[in-house]
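From the pipeline queue, job 12 of 40. The input is one protein chain; the requested action is below.

Action: predict structure.
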Amino acid sequence: MSTKKALITGATGLLGREVVKAFERAEWDVKGTGHSRADGSTVLKLDLAKRDEVEAVLDQVKPDVVVHCAANRFPDKCDKDPEGTRALNVTATETLASLCAARDVVLIYISTDYVFPGKPGDAPYAADATPQPTNLYGQTKLDGEHAVLRVFDQESKSGLGVVLRVPVLYGDAEVPSESAINVLMDSVWKAQEPENAKIQMDHWALRYPTNTEDVGRVCHGI
């Protein structure tokens, strides 16, 4: 077993599960954190809004890298709970960044293409494209990016804070609704039923789906 240690927040989610697997395949010592689905063993129960709990987990695990997958990532749910969304996507992220910087721990912050406006013809976006989020989810993830980079820069450790923007995710889902791509399979299955011969779907959005296993591999590569 490698002496290298990784801590993955949101380890029970669609992306977090694959990031955990990627580091495990590379024989890292991996711990995950979760909230409602944490088992207390491989996935530690952690409320990211509580600084003392975050500090305790970091001191217990002593990771070399933290991959921060945890987020309120569904735009409609963000709009229904703006305060909770900011608390998790921005405030908790800044706290985690501060604690990682103080311990010289690499932090990979998972962000999103929702930081961009999505105007026709713009995508795919370059890393240095100008962000212009059009909804609360995108704005909070952009604010989270700024928090991570600012904290590490203030500590003169800018190389330890990394932002990784990923487009819409698909992959090994526990239920199709975990992914805006996987959920399309529900419509395909329903279309096979005689009473559902016609299924309504939008045809205006041009997306660039990203496989969660690929994201995990890239996180380990970083």
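Job complete. The chain has a mean pLDDT of 91.
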